[in-house]
Amino acid sequence: MKEWATKEPLSYPVLIDTMHLVADLYGIVNVPAALWIDENDKIVRPADSTPASDMWRSFSGVDSSVHHDLLRRWVRNNELDMDADSVRSFQVLPTNEVQEARLHRRIAVALRLQGDESGALEHMDKAEQLAPHDWTIKRGNMPLRGVDPFGEKFMEFVGEWSAAGSPGFKLGTGREK
Amino acid sequence: MTQLTVIDESGSHSLGRLGFGELGVNAEDFAHSTGWTLKPEGLCKGEVCVPVRDAAAMSNGESIDVAEFARITGRNMVSDSSRNVVALGEPASRRATAMATLDAPNFTLLDINGNLVSLSDFANRKKLILAWSSW
């Protein structure tokens, strides 16, 4: 990642969030996700799954240009596509289970850094039992388990998540299906 | 000395374990890493103080019990005492209330060059947060 980010000078910082703090603070349930914060530090668009390009369009069914156009209009003309009540209605609020799962995941990350693989696995399992449909937890754990986050296990997860009614996906900017 | 890893929003802290209460740690270490100190007026972080009814249950001066601290401050806690790790976080109800204000909470993280960066470094500007994974 560092290689990519230093290939050419970036005009924005790239932060490392191993503990998923920003997901916790802002209700992010999947990546890639985007959210907007205005000059007065108010959230003016909630976290939403919005890809940077159409690379995965056939899979996600998301036309990335819809979010890009909205973003340009906000930056250039101060035009917002939703009011405060809409922002609230599209926020994904955490459940008790998800908040507890986040803590198990953080313990897993800390144990892994200490070289305790079996301890890390135990807490990853607990996190996934508590939050089986949270992408940041379930899919986020896959690389830590040595599982391909684009492979068979991932497709299995997508199936389970869809069957459960696609929980956590509320706004869906640019989604075609 | 045995160390207890305490994980909170500010990161992961290794604190000296002391035999007091359920999860006793060195009170000075705890104050240094979390910002919370037990004072006569209560449990204080900066200007904010939370009244503590039974201070003796939480601390004997030298040591502070992280479990009792979590109860008094209304924090979620998951601990693995056999592995000496505890994580503190926000309960769902409190997180939901904070989110509904639409006030963007500050955070500080390391960037890829090892520098600390905060949301507040970009005050008075429009900010786009992109969350992604390098996989």
What features would you describe in this structure?
- The complex is a heterodimer of chains A (177) and B (135).
- Chain A has nine helices and two strands.
- Among the domains of chain A are: 29-90, no CATH class; 96-149.
- Chain A is 49% helix and 7% strand.
- Chain A has helices spanning 2-5, 21-26, 57-60, 64-77, 84-90, 96-113, 117-130, 135-141, 152-163; strands at residues 33-37, 43-49.
- Chain A has 177 residues and is mainly alpha-helical.
- Chain B has 135 residues and is α+β, with helices and mostly antiparallel strands.
- Chain B has a domain at 3-92.
- Helix content of chain B is 21%, strand content 36%.
- Chain B is built from four helices and twelve strands, in the order E-E-E-H-E-E-E-H-E-H-E-E-H-E-E-E.
- The longest helix of chain B is centred in the C-terminal third of the chain and has 9 residues, at 92-100.
- Chain B is globular and about 45 Å long.
- Chains A and B meet through helix 1, helix 2, strand 1, strand 2 and helix 4 of A and strand 8, strand 9, helix 4 and strand 12 of B.
Shape type of chain A: globular
Report strand % of chain A: 5-15%
Sum up the overall morphology of chain B in one term: globular
N→C terminal distance of chain B: 37 Å
Number of strands of chain A: 2
Q: How would you sum up the major sheet of chain A? A: 2 strands, antiparallel
Q: First CA to last CA of chain A: what distance? A: 32 Å
- The spatial strand order of the largest sheet of chain A comes to 1-2
